[in-house]
Amino acid sequence: MTNLIIGLGVVLILIILYLLFRVSSLVGLARKRDVKTEGRVDSSNKINAGMFLGFTIVSLVVFFWYSFAYFDDYNLPVASVHGAWTDTLFWITMGVTVVAFSIISVVMAVFVYKYQHQEGRKAKFYPDNHYLELAWTIIPAIVLAILIFTGLRAWNDITSPAAADAEVIEVIGQQFAWTARYPGNQDNMLGKYNYKLIDAVNEFGLDLTDKNTFDDFKSLELHIPKDKEVLIKIRAKDVLHSMYIPHFRVKMDAVPGMPTQFKFVATKTTQEMRDELDNPGFNYEMACAEVCGQAHFSMKMTVVVEEQEDYDRWKQQQEAWLKQNPDYIKKVPAALREAAMIKAGLQEAPGVVVAAGN
Amino acid sequence: MATTDINVHPGVHHHDDHGDDHGHHEGNFWTNYVFSEDHKVIGKQFLITGIFWALMGGTLSIIFRLQLGFPEANLGWLRPVLGGWISEQGKLDPEFYLALVTMHGTIMVFFVLTAGLSGTFANFLIPLQIGARDMASGFMNMLSYWFFFLASVVMFISLFLETGPASGGWTVYPPLSALPQAMSGSGLGMTLWLVSMALFIVSTLLGGINYIATIINLRTHGMSFTRLPLTIWAIFFTAIVGLLSFPVLFAAALLLIFDRSFGTSFYLSDIYIAGEALAHSGGSPVLFQHLFWFLGHPEVYIVILPALGITSEIISTNSRKPIFGYKAMIGSLLFIAILSFVVWAHHMFVTGMNPFLGSIFMLLTLIIAVPSAVKIFNYVTTLWQGNIRFTPGMLFSIGMVSYFLTGGITGIFLGNSAIDIQLHDTYFVVAHFHLVMGSAAFFGMLAGIYHWFPKMFGRMMNAKLGYIHFWITFIGVYMVFFPMHYIGIAGFPRRYYSWTNFETFSGFFDLNMLVSIAAFATFAAQFIFLFNFFYSMFRGPKAPANPWNSNTLEWTTPRNPQHGNWPGEIPSVYRWPYDYSKPGAKDDFIPQTIPHSETPESNLPHETELIRLESTGTQGAVVVEKKD
To answer: pLDDT grade, residue B563 (50/70/90)?
Structure first.
């Protein structure tokens, strides 16, 4: 790669030097000898025409060479179901556009070179041709229509409602960190929250009058199961953020006051990706894609994809938020306190038999 | 019809009898060069201010490219200029980095490519190319510049605030831009940004109304709409688009001011920041994005349309061929102008707005690719079988077409909402818009400067220096923005101070370094242009009357047109502006002022019929000057 840079740098410098070499007539500028007569065309015309052709050929060669030779450097492995679709769409679009781009570029360069000024030749008076114009209006329209409809189908699938049994997890953005809230091991329901209840400890703003909050737990890593639909509920506390997990082709803004969501299915566990990339240190990462202030560039959360059983085991090991912060039990309405203590795991559940007997 | 009398200054109406006076109009320095009402002087004022801002915006980008290309470098040597924004360890302050990208965007989009481009060429070219003494209202025109000047002063001052200028991105999305607690640039810096933009919008509207009124009302005898050069058509659509969209930005800014200063909740809701839950409730940050992009998207066409017009004119002139598909070119401009109002939400596919809206906007967005493609094909066909002269203006025009193609084609990826999920806010977007609207519009502006410099200053710029300037800039810009596509496909997010926190974004040190080096070289090359520009202004060889053998009206004025443009009567127009290399004609160009009766050898059948109308003086009677 360094060689490439040096190579390109040298080419640029050579071009500059060559041009500077041609500036001998620059002296003429100071001496005012550069007075050109009307419409006269000098030898520069030929050089400029040649350079357009040369530039187009060289740059197209570099473009194709780099795109193939360094494919693995810029192609990010994909690890989600919908990511595979959008990648396919991406490469189809790439194929169509690169063909169009190459043809138009070459044709333009050839025209520029071939039809450079020649003394005595007259240009063709060719003001319009309705058939040509119609053709190049309709052909792009058809190609675009195909791209649009394939894109629309993918978009509708991606944004359709999540399955009823999807794993629901909440991700919260704030300056400058992500946190995740899980619905808990008892009720599997995310409890209510209210931003006015947020304080230094109750960072989710959990509304403890709702019994669904009692077993919710917090995580600084996002654990998700493989091959199961995951529905991420996204919110922000302070300013806009954007949940961005590059390997899953997932991106959705976190908006204060307007919860958003994104559903996806991960297809490779972290371990599988480590093996595939032969990189034992690999981790999926979540970044922030919407500028959110000073440390926007460091807003990272590690994402761990596990087999379902590993995921379940991990979940079981997590402590409810209420258990970690037992002081907050006093915010729970008196009638619900005992249930809260039990659900949060602060006290053993009384015998099921006894409960049933009541 | 009579000339429209909306003029405050008594010196501009009753054109013909007054024309001679203009030549002898002896004002003092202040009325001639500062508070001038002459459209040519105002155009030059916009140009010089635009060049100043371009240098400013470019310098800011050089500073952040230093950070991105050489993250390990010690920037301590910048301390004398940037002071506290460089830490003791010689590192750029991360918040100042955001201020740099924000101001770079704001300055380039609004002050350079809107005011500097439209302001310069609309003012300079409209009266000269349609055959008018001046703008419909010289006074409003002067106000337009001075409001822009005030906006510039306010924005410039904001760069030197202790808390820094606005830093939330040029799109200034709230709540980040609304809350000084969120970042220090959202304090006074943001207030000045809003004040400056409000003044800027006033300037744009004053200018736009004037452009539209002038083009509709003050065309010379025979200058029907179908004989207007494409520059004028493009400026006409640009002005209309600006007139309809800028007020929406004004409204968005006003509501943001209310939220910031008067406790309203248009954009703010459910916010807990700096240890405190704010009382704001019920607002929506997404509302701001809708309002912003309702201007913001037309804005990119406000930037590119004049460049498309300018390059159409220059490519036709220097190919010595009529522009291919004149009516299709107008039609595609019109179609783009209309569609520009119904595609704004493609900037917002992943903001959480209803996905169904996303589908609609994806459909509308990709439609806009059709007229854009038509323009490219028409440009290429204009080159076909031409007799091309590579003047610097022509080189920059072809460069513009190249950028418009390269940058435009990536729009097909981004307009597809499914693909956009991954590419949104990555370097792919940065590459896309810098090529298709940034660099392309910039090249349109440079092409225009090289082409009309002889008319502006009566002297020629040095062509060789123009070639060198072009080739370094053309290749340099590609080396800056093309690699960004790869960086973007690899997922690198934009507006990142550094990528080293993420393993996913840990590569591409080399490409980023290459981009930075290319950016420095490209920036340096602009000084060749500056030297050429200012040197030629005073010492360049005197320009001939019609240096490019062009057909349009501005080349029928004297070398240094005075206030009023034509010393005698305003010339009449008898034909469209693209009669280049007409079969049978003696020369390869026939100016618009030559009647068909004088060119029987080259007339097409339907033009021979026009001769009769020419003699009776009723032909093309859309606009006839009042003869007193």
So the answer is: confident
Q: Which residue is closest to A94 within chain B, CA to CA?
A: B413
Size of interface A-B (CB pairs under 8 A): 389
Fold of the A167-345 domain = Immunoglobulin-like (2.60.40)
What is the domain partition of chain B in residue ranges? 37-539
Q: Which of B277, B381, B417 sits opposite A198 (nearest CB)?
A: B277
pLDDT number for residue B616: 58
Which chain A residues are Cβ-neighbours of B535 within 8 angstroms?
29
| Contact between B175 and A238 using a beta-carbon 8 Å cutoff | yes
Vertex B83: Cα angle to B79 and B88 (nearest 5): 65
d(CA A25, nearest CA chain B) in Å: 8
* CA distances, B560 to each of B20, B153, B215, B408 (Å): 15, 31, 23, 39
- How many whole angstroms from its chain centre is CA A158? 14
For residue B261, pLDDT beyond 60: yes
Look at residue B11 and tell me whether its pLDDT is greater than 70.
no
| β-bridge pairing A260-265 and A284-288 | unpaired
Residue B159 has pLDDT above 80, yes or no: yes
Task: For residue A186, count other CB atoms closer than 10 A to its CB.
Answer: 17
Q: Is the pLDDT of residue B110 over 50?
A: yes
Q: pLDDT class for B9, splitting at 50, 70, 90?
A: very low
- What pLDDT was estimated at residue A26? 53
The residue extents of the domains of chain A are: 42-116+135-160, 167-345
Sequence letter at residue A127: P
Average pLDDT, chain B: 91
**Closest residue in chain B to residue A130, using alpha carbons only:** B325
Does residue A66 sit at the B interface (CB-CB below 8 Å)?
yes
Interface with chain B: mutation pick from A20, A48, A65, A103, highest number of B CBs within 10 Å:
A48
Fold for B37-539, please state it. Answer: Cytochrome C Oxidase; Chain A (1.20.210)
What residues of A are in contact with residue B401 (Cβ under 8 Å)? 108
Written as one string, the DSSP assignment of A15-51 is HHHHHHHGGGGHHHHHTT---PPTT---THHHHHHHH
Q: What digits encode the pLDDT tens for the residues B278-291?
A: 999 999 999 999 99
The arithmetic mean of pLDDT across residues B334-344, rounded, is 94
Structure tokens at B409: 């084609």
pLDDT at A253: 96
Token pair recorded at residue A60: 């197209």
Alpha-carbon distances of A273 from A243, A307, B527, rounded to whole Å:
21, 13, 50
Please tell me if residue B410 touches chain A, with a CB cutoff of 8 Å. Answer: yes
Q: Please report the pLDDT score of residue A7 as a whole number.
A: 73
Determine contact, residues B135/B123, Cβ cutoff 8 Å: yes
How close A306 gets to chain B, by Cα (Å)? 19
ipTM: 0.89
| The pair of three-digit structure tokens given for residue B39, joined into one six-digit string | 């459209």
- CA separation for the pair B186, B180 (Å, rounded): 5
Q: What is the distance between the alpha carbons of residues B370 and B345, in angstroms, rounded to a whole number?
A: 19
- Give the model's confidence band at A25: pLDDT under 50 very low, under 70 low, under 90 confident, else very high: low
Q: Is A155 on the interface with B (CB under 8 A)?
A: yes
- Return left, alpha or beta for A193; rule: phi > 0 is left, psi -120 to 50 is alpha, else beta: beta
Q: Retrieve residue B228's tokens.
A: 């207007």
Say if residue B169's pLDDT is above 80: yes
Residues in chain B, how many? 628
